[in-house]
Request: fold
Amino acid sequence: MSTKEHKPMAVKKHKPTSAGRRLSSGDSFEDITKTTPEMSLTRPIKKQGGRNNQGKITVRHRGGGAKRRYRLVDFIQNRLDDAAEITAIEYDPNRSARIVLVQYADGTKSYVLGAKGMEVGQKIVSTQGTTDMNPGNRMPLSHIPSGTLVHNLELKPGHGGMIVRSAGSAATVMSQDAGMVMIKLSSGEIRKFDENCRASVGQVSNSDWGKIRWCKAGRMRHRGIRPTVRGKAMNPVDHPHGGGEGSQPIGMKHPKTAQCKPALGVKTRNKKKTSSKYIVSGRKKRKR
Reply:
């Protein structure tokens, strides 16, 4: 295992040796300190190709891709007040962020989500009380001061981190009142959380991941993403936008999905959902 220190991730540009490589870029993996996973913390992945238990495709454009093993990442971190030492920063093929291999005093190893600024040899701790605001330390929201960036955030106390887990994402603690903590998510949504929900300090690692330009279809196939065909290019039996002679408009007031449901900008969240009462301000509308 290499002992080099953590470096900020950078995107490397490829030489234009072909039309497919021109303008493309990739991950430089400069921050990786260990190239092989801890096999005891991995499990095989059975590919479904977007199909359910009846063999029907429920998610389109899935299939193929490089063979992977799933890394058992600990999103709960329920070993309270037991400091763990970071032994390696690793690549995870199943997520955009880095994962960190930690080892406890009794020799137990575990994977946790990597945060920006983590280094090999650093100690992190998960607690129900208060601890230092170092990247990776985990504690209840009631003990985290306002203005702090957090990630791997619980929606319900004790259920483990469910949101703010992708590369470069972070939520901001705003204020505390009557057992609830106001959090501003990266989407712009402001939401109330139970003060006993736990979160990890810092921003998720690998923030430059969104700058990668894949450029060609072959790289997408390696990721397990199959080709996407426009609805206008299909027959009427296959898509609501299909049919017509030559290049025709979709022939309806607003676009629809292949299942004839409204698409593009339509709100899909159920207004009667129980958790809607915790949303103080909705997310910002993204510019197209």
